[in-house]
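Tip: read the tokens left to right.
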């Protein structure tokens, strides 16, 4: 919760610290890994974001449509890292899980 408040206030560094603490206390909770990924992505720390999103996906249920936004964010970080094939695959996975996720189609 502290990380969410810090992120809403624009303090991404404090948010990252809070989310990293949350991951340390409960490393099997995908929500915290997604939060780390989103916060890293906001700081253009794409390798860290990729790692966090992959961890969240690994903890989730394969084929769960709720993973579509995580795949989309993973694709964005791969794209920003000029990892074109990995980005395309992540976007395709997002669309496969949620065909209405239109931003993944571009």
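Filled-in amino acids:
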């Amino acid at each position: 919760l502290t990380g969410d408040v810090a992120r809403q206030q624009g303090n991404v560094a404090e948010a990252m610290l809070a989310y990293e603490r949350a991951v340390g206390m409960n490393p099997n909770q995908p929500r915290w890994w997604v939060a780390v990924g989103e916060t890293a992505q906001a700081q253009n720390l794409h390798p860290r974001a990729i790692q966090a999103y992959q961890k969240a996906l690994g903890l989730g249920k394969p084929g769960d449509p709720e993973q579509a936004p995580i795949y989309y964010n993973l694709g964005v970080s791969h794209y920003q890292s000029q990892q074109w094939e990995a980005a395309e695959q992540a976007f395709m996975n997002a669309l496969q899980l949620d065909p209405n996720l239109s931003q993944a189609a571009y």
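The mean pLDDT is 92. Residues 23 and 32 are 6 Å apart (CA to CA).
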